[in-house]
């Protein structure tokens, strides 16, 4: 076992990472490549699926080379991905008919408001566990079918994308499906990604015919849905392809569910928060799909081969790490690491609150027309105050979710496992512990998204025997305990709702 490994492709919002893990869950190879963010219009966000696939091949090849490894040493590949981001492609040529529409994209907000006016929100939530929102894949797919440029056929006449979809000539999928298709030739997704489309019945575990009809999505476009860790595997790479080896693709999880799995949150009540472009707080609710009364999503956490689906409650925060990127974009900081130093240099924000609603607000507010807001500034406000307010906004948004999570589940969070790039910031971790008045546990391997998909693939092929073996792998790097008085944390948090209120319903067309 010493010379074989599990590979994980982690296809995220800003780039693609390939990591190789050994039996102890330690990283033995790592490569990363950014891809372009495309903003055709305000509120629109796209990616080039071809660029993503080319970058995937590049990072896998480079990661193996730099790690001194051969593809034949990989027992399996796992995939994790930015969820909801939607690709539609030609079944015969494999070419996308349009750029991928990214989860952050708000172009279908009008369509969502139509659903609200037609009183279909509860109907959708009852089937999918999701809020009706532009975030999910259903309205993105519908938009592509109605708005992508007509495809040129051999007869040289243009035929609408929707017509070709109805004739069974197009395929759709989230990014996991796109990568599985390019790696294996198979059209497959896993239950976690299916549960993010707003087309999937999460208790019946099937593509829902009524939802497909509502959004005009032909069932022939949709991938086969499999367990997240699949002993039957999704297929294998072509030995004559870029890897030069036949490696089974055996696991897939949407990135946030992958982090839940990588954090070994296998039992009901276990919770984690991932701090990436956005932040995503998930609590395992076991084999019960718990309905939310407080603006959370009910979603599928994971499924192992031959076992029941495990559900989760999720709080989706659209902008956290991206708010730190914005500070860099506007030259308030030189790099992300500088935020801790600047924030520490002042005792408080001096009354400044930042609401980073750059692409609307997710849970628990669900306002696609909210926009980023800075309030409370005076002539004495300096960049240090704005930087600190930005970090505090991450902690406040997380407390919003923590309180909703406790109200829905009836379970008090005593420890929160955290991961993602931002948790390298000790100041933020301590601030988060203070604001939600909860223990924070940061693991040794903080790339738990990739680790989770590796665990899923490795379990499927017997590289690891059981989830108990994975629990033994999980190691704490550092724990943070609240140092702030509860009354002070409550005082700071008390004005957050006021600031949020001022950001709501801002992006109205004239």
TrEMBL record:
CDD domains: ASKHA_NBD_FGGY_GK (cd07769). ATP binds at residues 13-14, 277, 321, 421. It comes from the Archaea. ADP binds at residues 13, 17, 277, 321, 421, 425. It catalyses: glycerol + ATP = sn-glycerol 3-phosphate + ADP + H(+). The keyword Nucleotide-binding applies. GO terms for biological process: glycerol catabolic process; glycerol-3-phosphate metabolic process. Sn-glycerol 3-phosphate binds at residues 13, 83-84, 135, 255. Residues 5-262 form the Carbohydrate kinase FGGY N-terminal domain. Its EC number is 2.7.1.30. InterPro entries: ATPase_NBD, Carb_kinase_FGGY, Carb_kinase_FGGY_CS, FGGY_C, FGGY_N, Glycerol_kin. Belongs to the FGGY kinase family. PANTHER family: GLYCEROL KINASE (PTHR10196:SF69), SUGAR KINASE (PTHR10196). Key enzyme in the regulation of glycerol uptake and metabolism. Catalyzes the phosphorylation of glycerol to yield sn-glycerol 3-phosphate. This is Glycerol kinase. The gene is glpK.
């Amino acid at each position: 076992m010493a010379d074989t490994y599990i590979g994980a492709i982690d296809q995220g919002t800003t780039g693609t990472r390939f990591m190789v893990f050994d039996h102890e869950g330690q990283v033995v190879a790592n490569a990363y490549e950014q891809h372009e963010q495309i903003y055709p219009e305000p509120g629109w966000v796209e990616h080039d699926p071809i660029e993503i696939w080319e970058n995937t091949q590049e990072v896998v090849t480079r990661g193996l080379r730099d790690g001194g490894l051969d593809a034949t040493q990989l027992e399996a590949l796992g995939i994790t991905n930015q969820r909801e981001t939607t690709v539609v492609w030609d079944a015969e040529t494999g070419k996308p008919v349009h750029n991928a529409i990214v989860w952050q994209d708000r172009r279908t907000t009008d369509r969502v408001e139509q659903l609200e006016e037609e009183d279909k929100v509860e109907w959708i939530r009852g089937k999918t566990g999701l809020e009706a929102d532009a975030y999910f894949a259903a309205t993105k797919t519908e938009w592509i079918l109605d708005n992508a440029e007509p495809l040129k056929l051999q007869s040289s006449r243009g035929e609408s994308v929707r017509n070709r979809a109805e004739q069974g000539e197009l395929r759709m999928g989230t990014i996991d499906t796109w990568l599985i298709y390019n790696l294996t030739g198979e059209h497959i997704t896993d239950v976690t990604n299916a549960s993010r489309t707003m087309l999937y019945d999460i208790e019946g575990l099937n593509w829902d015919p009524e939802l497909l009809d509502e959004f005009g999505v032909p069932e022939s476009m949709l991938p086969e849905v499999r367990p997240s860790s699949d002993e039957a595997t999704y297929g294998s790479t072509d030995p004559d392809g870029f890897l030069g080896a036949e490696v089974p693709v055996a696991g897939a999880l949407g990135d946030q569910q992958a982090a839940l799995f990588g954090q070994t949150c296998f039992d009901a009540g276990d919770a984690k928060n991932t701090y990436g472009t956005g932040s995503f707080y998930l609590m395992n609710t076991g084999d019960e799909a718990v309905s939310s009364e407080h603006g959370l999503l009910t979603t599928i956490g994971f499924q192992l081969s031959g076992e029941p689906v495990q559900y989760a409650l999720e709080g989706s925060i659209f902008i956290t790490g991206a708010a730190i990127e914005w500070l860099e974009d506007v030259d308030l900081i030189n790099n992300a690491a500088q935020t801790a130093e600047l924030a520490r240099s002042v005792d408080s924000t001096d009354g400044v609150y930042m609401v980073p609603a750059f692409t609307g607000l997710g849970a628990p507010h669900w306002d696609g027309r909210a926009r980023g807001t800075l309030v409370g500034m005076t002539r004495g406000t300096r960049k240090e105050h704005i930087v600190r307010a930005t970090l505090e906004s991450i902690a406040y948004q997380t407390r919003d979710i923590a309180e909703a999570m406790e109200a829905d589940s009836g379970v008090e969070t005593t420890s929160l496992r955290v991961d993602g790039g931002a948790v390298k910031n000790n100041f933020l971790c301590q601030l988060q512990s203070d604001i939600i008045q909860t223990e924070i546990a940061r693991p040794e391997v903080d790339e738990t998204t990739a680790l989770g998909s590796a665990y899923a693939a490795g379990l499927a092929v017997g590289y690891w025997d059981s989830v108990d073996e994975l629990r033994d792998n999980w190691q704490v790097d550092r724990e943070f305990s609240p140092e702030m008085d509860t009354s002070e944390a409550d005082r700071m948090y008390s004005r957050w709702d006021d600031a949020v209120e001022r950001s709501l319903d801002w992006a109205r067309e004239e």
